[in-house]
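hi!! sorry for the late reply, been swamped w classes. u asked for the two structures so here they r. pasted raw, havent cleaned anything up. first the sequence of the first protein and right below it the C-alpha cells
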Amino acid sequence: MNSKYGILTGPSDPAPQELDLFRSLGLGAVKLLCGVHSPKAIESFRNVGAYVLQARIVYPEINNGRTPAQFVADRRNQIDTFIKAGLGEFELLNEPNTTREGFGKSWNSGDEFNRWFIEAANRLRDIFPGIRLGFPGLSPGPADLNIDPVTGRAYRPVGDVEFLDACNDAVLNANYLGVHAFWNNVDEMREFDPGSTGTGGLRWVRLYHERFPTMTIAITDFGNVRGGWVITRLMMINGASSATSMPSSTRYALNTNG
C-alpha cells in the first residue's frame, strides 16, 4: 500500500505563504476545487512539489435538481481548463447521501445516484478521453433524519453503508474511490468503528479497502471533527511545530493505492 499526504485546499487560490508551507512540510498531494479555483493554482502547487493532483467538481446547482447532461454541460468548460493545465483526476461531487449535496433533488436513493454517476461519467469520458473520475466520498455514518436547517430536510437520509451497497456498479465504473474518515478523539482515530457510528480513523479499511481491494482510494477529507482539528492533522503528518500557521480552510488528504 503506497500513500502520500497532502491537502484539500480552501475556497481561494493559494497565497505565497501557503505555498511556502506546503513545500516546507514536504507534502506531495493536493486536491483543488474545479468550479472554484483557477487553473493557475495547478501550476502553483506543481512548482512547490505537488505531483499528485486531483480536483473535486463543485456544483452547487446539484441541490436544485440537475440531470447528468445538465451537469456535464454546465461544468465541461471548467473541467477542460483544468485538464489543459495538467490536472486529469476529478471527484464527481461530494457526499451525495446528504440533502445538502443533491439527495432529494437530483436523486432520491443510492440506486438513483448509481445511475446518475454512471451516465455523468460516460458523458465526460466521451468528451475527455483519458479523464480519471473518482466516486465521491460519502458522509459517514447511519441515516441521520434530523432536519438540516440549511435544506429543511433530513440531513443524511441514507447511511453510507447502504448507499455504497446501492452504488457498487458506479464505484466499479470509477477510476478511484473517494473516502471520508472522521473521529472525535485519539482512541477513535485508531478504531475501525466497532459501534457502527460512522466515526473511526481506520473505518475506511474495512468498509472500502477490503471491499474494493484493487481500487485506488483517495481519503479526500479526514480528521478530528472537534475543536483544534487543524493542528491535529498537521501533527499527525509530521509533527510540525508550525501547525498554527496553516489556514483553517485547509484540510488534509491521503492518497492510497492498494
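now the second protein. again sequence first, C-alpha cells right under
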Amino acid sequence: MNALHEQFVVEARELIHQATDDLIAVEPEKASDERIDRVFRAFHTLKGSAGVVELPPMILTLHAAEDLLAAIRGRRLDVSSPAVDAALACLDQVAQWVDAFEAHGALPVRAGEDAQAMARRLRECGFPVSAVYDVRANAAQELAKEVGAEACRSLARVTEPAVNSVPGDAESDCQLPALVLTQ
C-alpha cells in the first residue's frame, strides 16, 4: 500500500469514528444544527477522500448518506431513528470497505452487491433512491425498477443532483439518495 492509501485509511477511520459518535448523540440532543453540520462535513470529506483513491462504490454510498443529511440540514426531512440508522448503516459499510482496502488494496468483489443492498435498505426505510449506476446496464435497470429510481448511463449523472443542490431551491434540490453499483 502506498503512502496516499495509508493516509486515506487513517483519515477515513478517524472520520468514521467522529461521524458515528455524532450520529449516536443526535437523537438524545434532538439534532443541533452544529452536530448535523459536523456529521455532514465528515461524510463529505470521506466521499472526497474515497474519490482521490478511486473507490466508486464507497463514493456513492457516502453520496447517498450525504444526500440524506443534506435533506435533514435543509429541513426537508426530520431527524428520526430510521434516518440515523440509515446513515449509521452507510458508515458501517464504509468501515468494512476501509478494512478491506487496507488489507487488499481494493474493495471486495461484493462491493456492488453491498451497494445494491444499501439501496434496498434505504428504500425499505422510506428514503427515496433517485439514481443508480452499474457498469452492467441490465443490473442497473433491474435495481432501478425495484427501488423506483433512474438507471443512469454514466457515473457523472448519478452525482449531478448533489453537485447542483442548493437547499431550499426547488429547481436544484437533490433527490435522496443516489447509489453507484459496480461489478
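hope this helps!! also noticed smth abt the second:
Confidence is low (pLDDT under 50) at residues 161-178.
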